[in-house]
Amino acid sequence: MLGLGTLFRIVKGLLGRPLEDTGLLPTRYYVREILEALDHDNIGEAVRLLKKAKGPLIDRSRLDLTRQQIIFRCRVLRERHAKRIRYLEGIIKAHKKNSKLPWRWLHKDPAERVGYYENTLDLEQQAQHLLKQYEMELKDMLTR
Amino acid sequence: MKEQKLSLPGALFGALAGLGADIAIRELTGFEVVSGILEIIGAGFGLLRIDRRIYDSTVRLLKGMDVQPDDDYQHILRRIDELTFDLPELRESFLNLMQAGVRAKHA
Fold it and tell me: Which of A64, A135, B1, B91 is packed most tightly, with the most Cβ within 10 A?
């Protein structure tokens, strides 16, 4: 026998997604979905849903707290990426320095490894830039 | 049993009248009736425990901070200050959680 919770989840699955883009759903629905996205570090989805929530009447303070939570998570993740970037830059620098030594000329492996580190560094920088953008967007929403 | 007929013009007229009434109330009193009703329906649909959900999320965020196991209380407070310098409500929630944790440790 279906419980009420299961029934609600089925209805939400069928109608929630198409309706949430309209912004007509209650603010609490958006707050709940934003927090769900935040639990999975899906910052892009959380920001998208925050923008959709149009009518914060009785839940304005809750929505604002949720927005602050996303900004906080963005900052924590950016710091994490910054640490990785510093580490990768250090490794790449050390590899490039070592590759100039004559007894390393015939080693192919380090060059491939440097390429791998550079790609990872590029991805880390992109992620950091994206998080910075999200943070700026959310800050603008705070001052609105 | 008498057969009921559905009237499309009647439905359209009803929808327009409802929309007109909503706009008139919003313009005259400033109250957003339709949004308000939707908010109440939403609260009724199992979303009453939203504060508990926000609390859980706040705890998870605090645990997700990059702090070392040997970091002392003052260091963690400084980190919270740095990260929440323009987020007053969240900062207050974090400080309340920290104080509750310290009180529980001493008890």
Answer: A135
Q: Flag if A35 and B53 touch (Cβ within 8 Å).
A: yes
The Cα angle at residue B92 between residues B105 and A31, in degrees rounded to 5: 110
What's the pLDDT at A1? 45
pLDDT at A143 over 50: no
CA torsion A94→A99→A100→A102, rounded to 10°?
130
Average pLDDT of the residues in B40-53 = 69
Q: Minimal Cα–Cα distance from A93 to chain B, Å?
A: 26
Burial-class residue A135 by CB neighbours within 10 Å (0-12, 13-18, 19+).
buried
- Select the residue of B47, B61, B66 nearest A28 (Cβ to Cβ): B47
Higher pLDDT, A80 or A6: A80
A76/B57 CB distance under 8 A = no
**Which chain B residues are within 8 Å of A83, Cβ to Cβ?**
66
| A106 pLDDT higher than 70 | no
Burial of A43 (0-12, 13-18, 19+ CB in 10 A): buried
Locate the domains of chain B by residue range.
8-44, 50-106
- The reported pTM is 0.72
Q: Say if the Cβ atoms of A65 and B89 lie within 8 Å.
A: yes
Structure tokens at A13: 């699955």
Predicted ipTM beyond 0.85:
no
Distance in Å, alpha carbon of B3 to nearest chain A alpha carbon = 32
**Chain A residues with beta carbon closer than 8 angstroms to that of B54:** 31, 35, 62, 65-66, 69
